[in-house]
């Protein structure tokens, strides 16, 4: 299959994305994301999709006075351990050869960055990424090297391909093609941003990437500036969806830089999506969603197609925010 068709066909179902009929939703349970109030409301944690258990775990760390980096690791680990989630960690959908390969990165308040890509047999890539950041002179380890480092650090090797994922892959192999259909699972990569009681921000992003991807394919999630970017002076941003498009526009870095220039998190996310759409007439066939958080604890989110949303825990309350979308009905 030609690369373009592979990506096009893989774009919707492969990422487990919910692509609702093209309608722009402007409603959020916070009514509307407002311009800056000047009020700082921290601690806070936001994450892509309905990852309520993950944001809850992160909030519990923050509420006790824990650091944002500890909150991020604790939150992301919840999704990595969830065998029912076929887009993150253990139980993730495999590549086209049947191998589960994971990408993850973490960024700290000090501008620290650690990442692993295409790592197999280790269930918690977010924790390995943190070890890369804290225990090595490097920032990114790939494949066998990442796995070997993880084992040296005490992580155990395990089979990440569940029976359910194996069956789905075997079914896919019969035709080895995709049909973009509306996916009801409504989840994908987890990107998470957290600010602790000290006002320091950290972020993490972890994924098994596109289901049935080509062997060796790496998306945006573990790549600094694309799937995640944090600047403790400004805020952070993270992405979900079609990694190739986020990578080409260095999306999360762009959003943080736009916030630096005075845009609200909402405005910055909208511009990030519009950059992708403007240069890509094929945008109807894939989804990208962003979430951003500034240092005041104000969030924004935006996506190409409706169906994306974010989980938030702030002031002791968990909420789900249905993201506004670029596409309009008809
Ligand atoms: N955003 C996840 C990926 O493209 O791998």
In short:
The chain contains nine helices and 13 strands. With 330 residues, it is of the alpha+beta class.
Provide a descriptive summary of the structure in words.
The chain is an alpha+beta fold. It has a single domain (about 25-320), classed as Glutamine Phosphoribosylpyrophosphate, subunit 1, domain 1, CATH 3.60.20. About 30% of the residues lie in helices and about 20% in strands. The protein has helices spanning about 5-10, 50-65, 70-80, 125-135, 145-150, 165-175, 245-250, 250-260, 265-280, and strands at about 45-50, 100-105, 115-120, 140, 190-195, 200-205, 230, 235-240, 290-295, 300-305, 310-315, 315-320, 325. An 8-stranded mixed β-sheet has the order 4-3-2-6-5-1-11-12. Strands 7-8-9-10-13 form a 5-stranded mixed β-sheet, with helices on one face. Helix 2 (about 50-65) runs antiparallel to helix 3 (about 70-80) and helix 8 packs across helix 9 (about 265-280). Mean pLDDT is about 90; it is low at about 1-30 and about 180-185. Bound molecules: glycine. Glycine binds near residues 207, 220, 240 and 243. Glycine binds near residues 189, 207, 221 and 243.
Topology diagram in text:
Elements: H1 3-10, E1 44-48, H2 52-63, H3 68-81, E2 102-107, E3 113-119, H4 125-135, E4 140-142, H5 143-152, H6 163-175, E5 190-195, E6 201-207, E7 228-231, E8 235-241, H7 243-249, H8 251-260, H9 265-278, E9 288-294, E10 299-303, E11 309-314, E12 317-322, E13 324-325
Parallel strand pairs: 3-4, 10-13
Antiparallel strand pairs: 1-5, 1-11, 2-3, 2-6, 5-6, 7-8, 8-9, 9-10, 11-12
Helix pairs in contact: 2-3, 3-4, 8-9
The structure holds glycine.
